[in-house]
Amino acid sequence: KQHLADRVKTLTPSTTLAITAKAKELKDQGIDVIGLGAGEPDFNTPKNILDAAADSMMKGFTKYTPAGGLPALKQAIIAKLERDNNLTYAPNEVMVGVGAKHVLYTLFQVLLNPGDEVIIPIPYWVSYPEQVKLAGGVPVHLEATSEQQYKVTAEQLRGAITDKTRALILNSPSNPTGMVYTKEELAEIAAVCEEADILIVSDEIYEKLVYNGVKHFSIAQLSDSVKARTMVINGVAKSHSMTGWRIGYAAGNAEIIKAMTDLASHSTSNATTTAQYATIEAYNGPQDAVEEMRQAFESRLTEIYPKLNAIPGFHVLKPEGAFYLLPDVSEAAAKTGYESVDAFAKALLEEANVAVIPGSGFGAEKTVRLSYATSLEALEEAVSRMDKFVKSKW
Ligand code: PLP
């Protein structure tokens, strides 16, 4: 007898986790591996947030909450969306879940019928296609090349839409590319979505991490009609260094939000109560720590970007947001005798002791992803190791 349902048979395990496990194995053997795989800020959660969480527990707020989130948290999120994004929502248009990842999962579960298509630009965050497939949907990939700054164009989008298309996923600032869509680019994309009457899933989890004067703009800000077809996804994981607290949310169409809340009522019941109290403070309290962390990422990027780009055969677009660099290393791999970038990344780990994530997991086979959510010292050392490795084999 077989144990597993068909729906999990095509699940691709996360490449990020595979390389992290291998790096850990080497570390356990006493090898000094520098891990650049991390998808989370390397800072502690700000103290005022920790205090608010502890305080809520001591007051006895440790019971179930409404499935879609505490009313006070919804109000804090509504105030945040108004303040930062100039977007107005009512409480029945907001749903709080167990991290942005699970909110996206819930969204696709309530949105898709078997065979419904969701357009996902390449390079993509690894979980989008898997979540779409788990909901019975079909991921339709659109390749955004480095020549187009890894951003899809309205024209490409128009060409990919069929009568089965339900939604487009946009992630700006992007993991893994670090690119940020401009208001003008978003306007062109939104026009196509309106014409074709499809939803926009706008994953804005990296909104606070933008550099060198680049501004984040939410596609929902374009007009009331674009807002009506957009599900804004956000959370505190990356902005407030709260990855482990698992709080994310969706804002948008009330009918979709209600279905997501009803589904959550049968799956999670609610996001962890303490974490919800922490998030109220994250949004209602002082925001200085958010800006301090952003500045730390920006100064690391300024230091490390030119050095990474100077490694022979590494070609890197300068990121505008998030905390990843996505060098095209296909030339370096070929010139040093590797048949693929995956093999090159494996050698970087085993011989240069630097752990990077092969881009194949993001649909971008020529690249590797490096996270700069680590100390500048570690970054400098990692770049120097990779430089030596490439030069010694060139
Ligand atoms: N969306 C993107 C693009 C991400 O990179 C991540 C985290 O890596 C998430 C969503 C999930 O965030 P959360 O920790 O809130 O689930």
Automatic annotation (TrEMBL):
Cofactor(s) listed in the protein's UniProt record: pyridoxal 5'-phosphate
What GO biological process, any one, is recorded here?
Answer: amino acid metabolic process
Could you list this entry's UniProt keywords, alphabetically sorted: Aminotransferase, Pyridoxal phosphate, Transferase
Check the record and name the SUPFAM superfamilies matching this protein: PLP-dependent transferases (SSF53383)
A molecular function annotated in GO for this UniProt entry is: transaminase activity
Q: Which family does the UniProt entry place this protein in?
A: Belongs to the class-I pyridoxal-phosphate-dependent aminotransferase family.
Q: What is this protein called?
A: Aminotransferase
What organism is listed for this UniProt entry?
A: Viridibacillus arenosi FSL R5-213
